[in-house]
Amino acid sequence: MPDYLGIIHLFGTVGRYNIPWNCFQLNFIAFFCVFLDTILTSTRYFQILYFMIVDRFTFTLRFL
Questions:
Q1: Whole-model pTM over 0.85
Q2: CA-CA distance, 50 to 44, in Å (whole number)?
Q3: What are the transmembrane regions (predicted)?
């Protein structure tokens, strides 16, 4: 189950700090993947995408 609060927190941090546009685009793609994940069945494919993109960027945002 994806961490939806983490995604909302991710958008909050993007707004709070001046993160480059490419980072925000990737965050939006991750958010869209989770949105698709709620519509479709919870497949392994979307979970892998979620962990690849979102966890990597929450990890980098912590050290800004």
A1: no
A2: 10
A3: 28-53
Burial class (CB in 10 A: 0-12, 13-18, 19+), 47: middle
Q: With H, G, I as helix, E, B as strand and everything else as coil, classify residue 4.
A: helix
Distance of CA 5 to the CA centre of its chain: 10
Q: What is the pLDDT of residues 42-63, one digit of tens each?
A: 556 666 666 666 666 666 555 5
- Which residue pairs from 20-25 have beta carbons closer than 8 angstroms and sit at least 24 positions apart in sequence? 23/57
| Rounded Cα–Cα distance for residues 63 and 40 (Å) | 34
Residue 61, Cβ neighbours under 10 Å: how many? 17
Q: How many domains does the chain have?
A: 1
Distance CA 19, CA 50 (A): 20
Contact 59, 24 (CB under 8 A): no
